[in-house]
Structure formats: structure tokens, C-alpha cells
Specification:
Shape: globular
Oligomer: single chain
Mean pLDDT: 97
Distance between the termini: 50 Å
Low-confidence stretches: none
Number of helices: 9
Largest sheet: 8 strands, mixed
Length: 416
């Protein structure tokens, strides 16, 4: 238990302690903090208390405006920092609890804070690792017999995304314009996307990188995975349909990707680890891993549009439905010798489960627009309208507490 009050349904108990970057009106410079209840603990103020063997001499990482330097210190430093934080925030520890002057400087109400991107994201890679999602999309466009491409069960398919357009939750999303070809017997036209979609995803930040030419072995991959966030990889399906052959998504996904602001450390998620999915055929040796790295994370998507009094749930899914694990994704990404760097962002791809309510995109929920999604009171959607606000949430349920991710939201603004 923490001396900071935390309700049982709060995302940020002492079992979580996610990292983020925040600022306040009176101190506009971004700085690193940890969420606890409805408060933020300013690590800049207490950096002198991180004096263990892995952080001593490195306290200045908590004086920076991003998490990149802290991420680069590695998993032993992360574990040490978490141990220090849990001790300092414990109800039985007096260091912060009984020092009124230090507490006044160290804690900021979340209601007073503006949240920023937690890292300087140098590179962003999006995978395609949900078997249910890949199967659904394959059936729509190629039929049941050819739903999965021949390589899909042998490697984590992915593509390099656009890091510059990754934005923090709450940022407006401008409807993109691009080339579309609605009819196969007519030439393409340039117009605002009519088939704007969501993608329910999660992503992880890379910690220490690797040298160019030196792959990260799967047995060591977890030492390079700092923590996770929610992600909505907005997608313009009509632009995507026309552009993606033969090289894949480009303008249909580069206009915006929203992430949640709090990075939940992997140590906080390990109590919710599950056995990895059975993979058939057995992947090649560099992708084989005996340690479990699949997680029971409850996920949901809500939509609220103009004229709707409250958000309506359109999807309930779970991260456990992923076929390829994060360790496999990182090992595959670097097997060529590609070097990753602290703060790089690697995403899961759309997370869909086996049931229609667990489909993680409107493309699937409306089955390519053929089945309108009922939002109640006469409201329906096949794809997103201007003014729609989409909010993703996720949490792991413990015994009397939850380890949550906050929210990942964005509102659609009209095209320029």
C-alpha cells in the first residue's frame, strides 16, 4: 500500500508506477514523473534518492525532458529505480511521507499537468501480429482459402512507420487527403478519405540499443524492452487500398499515430504474464523462445460523435490474442543487424480476438462497411465521421488493484 490514496479501480497504484513526461503552467519545462493515484511524483525533485549501484552517478537522467537516457541505462537500472520508488511511496516509509517540504515540491496533481510524448522517438515500426486480424482482412480481400499470406506463420510481418507523426493522447487528428480509386474502371481522384479507421494496438519502447550488424538474440530481447503504451494507428482505408500494392502502407498511415502518455514498465506487467500461443509451424530457431511473454491486458475502444451524450463501447479485446510476442518482434527486427536505439517505438499491429466484439478495427467491426455498427439512439458508423472522438483504454486486473495505461484518445477534425 502507498501513503498516497489509490482507489481499487484507479489505473495507477503502487504496483504500476508508469513513467511519463509532464509540465505545469507555473513550470512549463517538460520533466519526468511517475503516476501514483491522482498524483505525479516529480523525479527531478527526488533524483538524489536514486543512489544504488546502477543509478548512482546517473541521477541526471531524471533531470531531462524525455525518458531516452533513462531507457538507455538498461534493465538493472530500471529494476533498481522501481525498487526505490516502491519503497519511497510505501505507507511504511517516512522519507517522503513525513517530509512536508519535500512532498510539497515532489508531488503534482495530474489535473494540473500537461502530458507530453514520453520519449524522442527516432524510429517507429508497426507489426501485423494478430492472427485473427490478419485472417479477417485476408478473407475480405482474398477469400478464406488465401486469408494468410504464405510468410505470415513464419515471421512477424511489419513495416517502417513515420515517427514524426506520432502524437500524444488528446492531440487532434486531421482527416487526410490522398489518392483514392473507388471504382476499378475509373481513374484515381484526389480527395479527403471517406474510410477513416482506427487500429487498436499496443506498443513498446526500446531501451538499450544494439550495434549495427549485431542482432539482439531472443534470449536477451526482454532486456531491451522498457515498457508499453496504448496506440491508435489511424488508417485511411481508401487511400491504403489504392497505394499498398506492392510495397504496403504509406500515406494511408503516416498522417497520425496516437499513443497514451504513461509508459507501464514491463516489471509491472510480469504478474499478468501468460503462456505464449502455440505456433504451428514451429518458427525458425532465432524466433524460438521458451520463456512466456504474452500478457493478459484487457482492452476497450469507445466512440463518441456529434449528438451523442456519452461514449459507446465498440470493441472489447485483449493483448493475449497476439500470435507473435514482443520478444519475437524485436529479435526479428534486428536479425539482419539493424540497430535499434533508446526510445524507438515498436507496435503490435491491430489487436483482434476470435469474436466480433473483439475486432480491433472498424474495417472488421463493420466488415468492410457492409454491417453498420449500432451506437444506439439512431447513431451508426461504418467508418469515422468528423467530430468523432475515439478513446482506447487498457488494464491488467490484480487482486484488489489494477495496473492500467490511462487513456489514448483523439478527435477527428475535417480535412484541410
Amino acid at each position: 500500500m502507498s501513503f498516497i490514496p489509490v482507489p481499487a479501480d484507479c489505473d495507477f497504484p503502487i504496483q504500476n508506477l508508469p513513467y511519463g513526461v509532464f509540465s505545469t503552467e507555473d513550470e512549463p519545462a517538460p520533466r519526468i514523473g511517475v503516476a501514483i493515484g491522482d498524483q505525479i511524483l516529480d523525479l527531478r525533485v527526488i533524483r538524489h534518492l536514486f543512489n544504488g549501484p546502477f543509478l548512482s552517478g546517473h541521477q541526471d537522467v531524471f533531470n531531462e525532458a524525455t525518458l531516452n537516457s533513462f531507457m538507455s541505462l538498461g534493465h538493472n537500472a530500471w529494476k533498481e529505480a522501481r525498487h526505490v520508488l516502491q519503497r519511497l511511496l510505501s505507507a511504511s516509509e517516512a522519507t517522503l511521507r513525513d517530509n512536508k517540504e519535500l512532498r510539497a515540491r515532489a508531488f503534482v496533481s495530474q489535473s494540473r499537468a500537461k502530458l507530453h510524448l514520453p520519449a524522442n522517438i527516432g524510429d517507429y515500426t508497426d507489426f501485423y501480429s494478430s492472427k485473427d486480424h490478419a485472417t479477417n482482412v485476408g478473407i475480405m480481400f482474398r477469400g478464406k482459402e488465401n486469408a494468410l499470406m504464405p510468410n505470415w506463420l513464419h515471421l512477424p510481418v511489419g513495416y517502417h512507420g513515420r515517427a514524426s507523426s506520432v502524437v500524444i493522447s488528446g492531440s487532434p487528428i486531421r482527416r487526410p487527403k490522398g489518392q483514392v480509386r473507388p471504382s476499378d474502371d475509373k481513374p484515381p481522384s484526389f480527395e479527403a478519405s471517406k474510410l477513416l479507421d482506427i487500429e487498436l494496438e499496443m506498443a513498446f519502447f526500446v531501451g538499450p540499443g544494439n550495434n549495427l550488424g549485431e542482432p539482439i538474440p531472443i534470449q536477451k530481447a526482454h532486456e531491451h524492452i522498457f515498457g508499453m503504451v496504448l496506440m491508435n494507428d489511424w488508417s485511411a482505408r481508401d487511400i491504403q487500398k489504392w497505394e499498398y500494392v506492392p510495397l504496403g502502407p504509406f500515406l494511408s498511415k503516416n498522417f497520425a499515430t496516437t499513443v497514451s502518455p504513461w509508459v507501464v514498465p514491463m516489471e509491472a506487467l510480469m504478474p499478468f504474464v501468460l503462456p505464449n500461443p502455440i505456433q504451428d509451424p514451429t518458427p525458425l530457431p532465432y524466433l524460438q523462445d521458451k520463456s512466456d511473454y504474452t500478457f493478459n491486458i484487457n482492452l476497450s475502444v469507445c466512440l463518441q460523435g456529434d449528438g451523442m451524450k456519452e461514449p459507446v463501447s465498440i470493441c472489447r479485446s485483449n493483448f493475449k490474442y497476439m500470435y507473435w510476442t514482443m520478444k519475437q518482434q524485436l529479435a526479428h527486427h534486428t536479425v539482419t543487424g539493424c540497430n535499434v536505439r533508446p526510445g524507438d517505438l515498436l507496435a503490435s499491429g491491430t489487436i483482434s480476438g476470435p469474436d466480433p466484439e473483439s475486432f480491433g478495427s472498424m474495417l472488421e467491426l463493420s466488415w468492410r462497411g457492409s454491417k453498420p455498427i449500432d451506437l444506439g439512439n439512431g447513431h451508426t458508423r461504418t467508418f469515422l465521421k468528423d467530430g468523432d472522438t475515439v478513446t482506447l483504454r487498457g488494464y491488467c486486473q490484480g487482486d484488489g488493484y489494477r495496473v492500467g495505461f490511462g487513456e489514448c484518445s483523439g478527435t477527428i477534425h475535417p480535412a484541410h
